[in-house]
Amino acid sequence: AAAGVSGVIKTVMALRHGVLPKTLNVDEPTPHVDWTSGTVELLTEQQPWPDTGRPRRAGISSFGISGTNAHLIIEQAPEDGDDPDHDAPEPAVATDGTLPWPLSAKSETALREQARRLLDRLDRSPEAAPARIGHVLATGRSAFDHRAVLIGREPADFQGALAALADGEPSPHLVTGTAATEPGRTVFVFPGQGSQWAGMGVELMRTSPVFAEHLTACAEALEPFTGWNLIDVLTQTNDAPDLDRVDVVQPALWAMMISLARLWEHLGVTPDAVVGHSQGEIAAAHIAGILTLEDSARIVALRSQTITHIAGQGGMVSLPLPAADAADLIEQWRGRLAVATVNGPSATVVAGDGDALDELLAQCDAQGVRARRIPVDYASHSPHVHPLHDELLELLAPVRPQDAGVAFYSTVSAHAGGALDDTTVMDA
Predict the structure, then answer these.
(1) Is there a contact between 380 and 352 (Cβ–Cβ < 8 Å)?
(2) Region (Disordered): which ranges (predicted)?
């Protein structure tokens, strides 16, 4: 099966370099062929391949020892400068021109040599489009363990990074590393409230058709449950409410998270597991396949609206303490303050009565603890939300959870599960 491989390689190289190679291992042509009766002759010396204005073509015959006879015709590939936009995929995200060039090889030495060859190619073809080169490097080559990524906007950025890689030197436009022995797993993490800002998503909505498509779908899913339009809120048009309202910001963040997740999936980054906090858990459940978009929209919209019933009755404070230490600290306000969320080994949020939080902040200031009040006037994830329990369950009665297609980690149990049989855990 491999009888003609060397011939294929030789011919491809000849086409690429525009050279007719000499016929090897032939001192005298065979006398069994009448070389005078036609125009066929052996090449005794290497010659330039004539440029006729048409693509070069060559035929290769392979005669196997068992009697097989195969013939292959190869045509010269288009030049880099020929119709660079032909069949180019529609970009999922428009950028400011910053592009990645990924390289990989089986060894560090081979990686450096590859950088030298590519640098030489750039020197010989300075007109080559960086985007086209990046696309070919990303989609047309095998991935090996020794890797480098060049980041740049101008040809000079890539040339400098390639020179640094070839010489084993650092560069601000270069990242190198070795692939992990075992393939890694990807987790999508969906945050809670507080990650919003005015104008979020607007530029991406205008430059990414994929993101805009899913954001529009989220807006349509929210429409039956809100008195405002999501796109108007994000663009601040048509007298839309701003993000200061909890019943606006939480659905807006939910839509942002879902649309970003779908964009990552479109780009080939898919989650092996998902986890979310607060309304982020609702988005995570949709991406995991547990909630339809419509059910997910219902939950985030109606949940945020019920929270308005307890607005002005409490608050939340972030403490740079482990959960156990935070619990000890607020013990003197038992029944008025509670641990709301554990955000990290030394990051805990407590919630409860506003006056108790004022006293806590004063004590922390006196003790040198850098406590910070969170800008909300309700006590989420605390006993303050208990009066909303029955109303919320009634509102969410039509929701029908499904089996998960992606592992969904609960922030209540810290375990991955299938269907959300008990939706009350999402009111934690």
Answers:
(1) no
(2) 77-101
- Which pair of tokens denotes residue 313? 């009755």
pTM: 0.68
Yes or no: say if 326 and 251 are a contact pair by the CB < 8 Å rule. no
Structural domain total, the chain = 4
Q: Map tokens 């969320």 to a residue.
A: 341
**What are φ and ψ of residue 306, in 5° steps?**
-70, -30
Is 264 inside any structural domain? Answer: yes
Q: Which domain holds residue 348?
A: 314-376
The residues pairing with 374 across neighbouring beta strands, listed in sequence order, are 316
Query: Quick one: tokens of 175?
Result: 């990242």
Give dist(CA 149, CA 159) in Å, integer.
13
| Cα(227)–Cα(216) distance, integer angstroms | 16
Residue with tokens 């949940």: 303
**CATH number of the domain to which 363 belongs:** 3.30.70.250
Per residue in 140-161, pLDDT (tens digit) is 888 899 999 999 988 899 999 9
DSSP 137-151: HHHSS---SEEEEEE
- Read out DSSP for 36-52? TSSS----SS-EEPP--
- Cα 181–chain centre separation: 21
| Whether residue 301 sits in one domain with residue 192 | yes
Detail the DSSP E strand segments found in 195-299: 273-276
Q: Are residues 415 and 299 in the same domain?
A: yes
Residues of the chain with confidence (pLDDT) below 70: 1-3, 79-96, 417-428
Residues near 130 by beta carbon (within 8 Å), at least 6 away in sequence: 99, 101, 152, 153, 154, 155, 158
Question: How confident is the model over 66-75, as pLDDT tens digits?
Answer: 777 888 899 8
Q: Report how far apart, in Å, the C-alpha atoms of 212 and of each of 77, 234, 280, 307, 340 are.
A: 37, 12, 20, 29, 34
Residue 348 lies in a domain: yes
